[in-house]
Structure to design on (258 residues):
């Protein structure tokens, strides 16, 4: 499949991926895909990443139920970063973060410190039970 | 400076950075910072990255005039990815990409191929002269 060969995979065979919410345009999370993860994402229409810590394919939502429906995939000018436009499923508003927050980017730099500014929408113990 | 120590730098001492436009919420580009780049970004209010290809600090806009004014910095749940909220300066609409486009993410996946779907706003030969 040519389109997979156009991607410039890094030395570990991975591609950085940004997931952005359709509608709000909020940046939800950042993760990696390998070749198989990207192929599966394209084939199934749901985000499949490569978990570097667990060293296996990670169908986002497999444990939490918080799957990501993929509307669009965009490759950058260097062919080495992917932008996914997604609907974050399983909860309203969407929960992308394992901490139970909407977005993983919930710590804002303020006066020389990182401060959590987004609410926990659902207790992780409720999510991963 | 404690806040710099809270960042989980990768094995090369780098941090992946997503630049998002204030207002449109468009994702403009993806790059890396090292510790000094992040310190300078915080101190100056303009995005300073680490160029991996040139192996030096890269004050975005130094060659193009397309500087990025930083309004907000967000760290993710794992402390290893940064989200910048920026105004893309130097041209209206903003040009973040070295190809003269608004965003680096201009290639959309369509029917098994990556297709360029965003216009070139300014010829790169005009930008880098």
């Amino acid at each position: 499949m040519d389109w997979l060969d156009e991607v410039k995979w890094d030395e570990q065979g991975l591609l950085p991926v940004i997931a952005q919410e359709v509608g709000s345009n909020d940046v939800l999370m950042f993760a990696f895909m390998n070749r198989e993860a990207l192929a599966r994402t394209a084939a199934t229409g749901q985000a499949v990443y490569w978990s570097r810590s667990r060293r296996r394919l990670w169908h986002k939502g497999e444990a939490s139920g918080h799957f990501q429906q993929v509307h669009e995939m965009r490759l950058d000018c260097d062919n080495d970063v992917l932008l996914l436009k997604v609907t974050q499923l399983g909860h309203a508003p969407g929960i992308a973060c394992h901490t139970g927050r909407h977005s993983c980017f919930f710590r804002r730099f303020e006066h020389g410190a990182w401060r959590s500014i987004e609410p926990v929408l659902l207790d992780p113990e409720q999510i991963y039970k």
